[in-house]
Amino acid sequence: MKKLLIIAFTPLSLYPSCDINAQKLVKSYPETILKCQNNRIILKNGKSFIYDDGKKKTFSQLLNSPDIEDMFKFAYPKGQTGSLPKNYDPGRIRFEPLFKELYGHSPLEVKTNLVNIPWFGQSIKVTAKNGVADALKGVYRDLKTLPPSYRKYLYPIGGTFKWRYIAGTKRLSVHSFGAAIDINVKYSAYWRWSKGAYRYRNQIPKEIVEIFERHGFIWGGKWYHYDTMHFEYRPELLK
Known about the structure:
- The protein is of the alpha+beta class.
- It has helices spanning 20-28, 59-64, 96-103, 107-111, 132-143, 206-214, and strands spanning 33-37, 40-43, 48-50, 114-119, 122-127, 180-182, 217-219, 230-233.
- Helix 5 packs antiparallel against helix 6 (206-214).
């Protein structure tokens, strides 16, 4: 009598290296990402990246040589304000090759996808790729419902698109991809501006932060290395 060979198949969603965070990433950028399979993030253009390299990393290595899975190292605390534990920087870990696939590999490539949107009497440029412009339009619509006293924090803006490195690093800023906005610098705080001992500072009202988060933008004020003017489109961290 022949023996019956039974093979059990594990659903992709349960595959250890295609975890719930990988699925959040796929759902957040359907314009670019096709799926996660066999520990790889597979793009619609046929390219793919290893999701989890399995390496344990120092904080410096997380910033400078992460894999995609490392981007979820620190959970983003929606609704929470105030200082965070040392080096707790949810969203500052970015796998740059993926961002280039999402938005463009060069200033020229990014610029071809920039569109103008209104912003409190200004016209600002952000990318239309992967829903960024539509999301920021939603932010603007909701911000306009706040009392007029909030508007001093929102304009004039510090900037949107600019192809540049993050200060003191060789890592591209998310501003390089047209997927970030700095609001009014006058009411903002940045950890590199601190004089002497480290101390968290913030003036941005939570109502502004909550509106940005509702539309898929994380806030740099929830980083130990705080940057309270900064918001960037990272819906995968807010799902």
